[in-house]
Prior knowledge:
The protein is mostly beta strands. It has strands spanning 2-4, 11-13, 23-31, 36-45, 54-61, 66-69, 77-78, 82-83, 85-87, 90-97, 102-109, 114-119, 132-137, 140-146, 150-156, 165-172, 180-184, 190-194, 198-202, 208-213.
Amino acid sequence: MFLWNPSTGFKTQIPWAPKYLYEHHYGFGYDPSRDDYLVVVLSTDREIEENPFSSHLEIFSIRDNRWKEIEGTHFPYFGDYNNGLLFNGSIHWLASRLDLEIDVIVAFDLMDRKLFEMPLPDDFHHRVPSDSCLWVYGEFFSLWARGNDTIERWVMKEYKSNSSWTKTLVIPLSNYSYFYPICSTNNGDIIGKIPYSGLVKYNNKGLLLEFQSFSNSPSYTESYTESYTESLLSLPGDNEQDYKLEE
């Protein structure tokens, strides 16, 4: 597992979580109360017959340079390899609750170091996470979902208030079968990816503005695309060497 800052080019390796299980959610964020960066891993193994919801919540402290398990935490959440969304001091994931057979948003508060849940919109009827994803639209915690021929944008206008979920945009996908929003610009334009094809830009009313093909590059290969906030700050104890797990 690597941590990499694209702004400085610095890359450091940390060990895998000691109790890492097959199904997992992961994320990375900053805890200002301790001036510490944390890697968070929630993992579940539902193949163990005697305990179908065997689970672990582990955090790696960059400052302490070690993994720690949050004991006594039980979460029957299942989801594919799911990179968490950092918003408002917490890391969020889309997941399915195996015990209740419902889809939810599960989050980890980086300061309190506790899990909490938020429900999906009442009128949200899409598969999680295959046809939906969490993201940040402007200053709002948001959700997008893909239908048969459309992309929906949902915005939570008041954080943690389920009644504030609002469907604010529906984009017809007449030109593309798949579209994955990545980020939004300061004026509300939406930038996303057409897998194995290119990047596209829509305005805040769903009008297609621009398409940039991946295949323009002679060395083109499909790759993951993520957005990030530039920073020249160093990690605590940053000394150009790998972090190792303490014995």
